Amino acid sequence: MDIEAEIRALKLRIDAFEAIMRTGDADSDDYRHARVRTGRRTRVKGSKITSAEIAVAEMRAEIAGAQLEISQDFAALGDELTGLRRQTNDQFISARAEILGVFDSLRSDMVDLGRRLDQLLETRNA
User: Are 20 and 48 a contacting pair, CB within 8 Å?
Assistant: First the structure.
């Protein structure tokens, strides 16, 4: 699991919660600075956060969640590829060993046939 993505998602959720809590605090008419999910300061009269800003905060939380899911999917895909590489490598090593065994057997048979042929030629020429 990607710790950085998880921390980002938690920060965005906290920002969204703070934004929702500030909408209930809108008593004074003075200008205050309010942080809305972007981390930037925005001047909002009386700490009133518009529904658009809340919607943006919620969308950012959803995007962070989607990013987290995608990063987890990519991590799982990487694990799958690693397993596939290992399996393919094991099968390649097994097939290679089998082919080398067959090749050694054929070479041995060819050497035996060569000796037999030499013996037959010697007996025929003698």
Answer: no
